[in-house]
Amino acid sequence: MPPKTQSIRPNELAIIRQVFDNIDTDNSGTIEVAELAAAMKQIVPDATDEEIDEIFAQTDLDRNGTIEFEEFVKIIQTWLEDA
Ligand SMILES: [Ca+2]
Ligand SMILES: [Ca+2]
């Protein structure tokens, strides 16, 4: 079975892990919507709650209400592919 993070290099994965841990301010191992909102408002100060909700919904692939690291990696991969 191929690894799910096939197209990401180990050093990139380490950077993504750091970003993930920075957003996960309560160190629960998952990103909650409030943590995403806080991170988004640092990057994009005028981001609306609707925009944040939309990004959260797009990232929370299994819709369990939290962003797991695996989901975070997938959304970063999608962004990198689109760039
Ligand atoms: Ca958290
Ligand atoms: Ca999830």
Structural summary, described in words:
- The protein has 83 residues and is mainly alpha-helical.
- The chain has one domain: Recoverin, domain 1 (Orthogonal Bundle).
- Helix content is 60%, strand content 5%.
- It has helices at residues 10-23, 33-43, 49-59, 69-82; strands at residues 30-31, 67-68.
- Strands 1-2 form a two-stranded antiparallel sheet.
- The model has no long low-confidence stretch (mean pLDDT 91).
- Residues 60, 62, 64, 66-68, 71 line the site of one calcium ion.
Features:
83 residues, mainly alpha, Recoverin, domain 1, 2 strands, binds calcium ion, calcium, EF-hand domain-containing protein, EF-hand-dom_pair, metal-binding, repeat
The average pLDDT score comes to 91
Order of strands across the main sheet? 1-2
Q: What's the story with the biggest beta sheet?
A: 2 strands, antiparallel
Rg from C-alpha positions? 13 Å
CATH architecture heading: Orthogonal Bundle
Uncertain residue ranges: none
Please name the CATH topology.
Recoverin, domain 1
Which geometry do the CA atoms define?
globular
Total strand segments: 2
Number of helices: 4
| Helix fraction bin | 55-70%
Termini Cα gap: 28 Å
Structural class: mainly alpha
Write out the CATH superfamily name: EF-hand
CATH class: Mainly Alpha
Structure in a nutshell:
It is found in: Cytoplasm. The chain has helices at residues 10-23, 33-43, 49-59, 69-82, and strands at residues 30-31, 67-68.
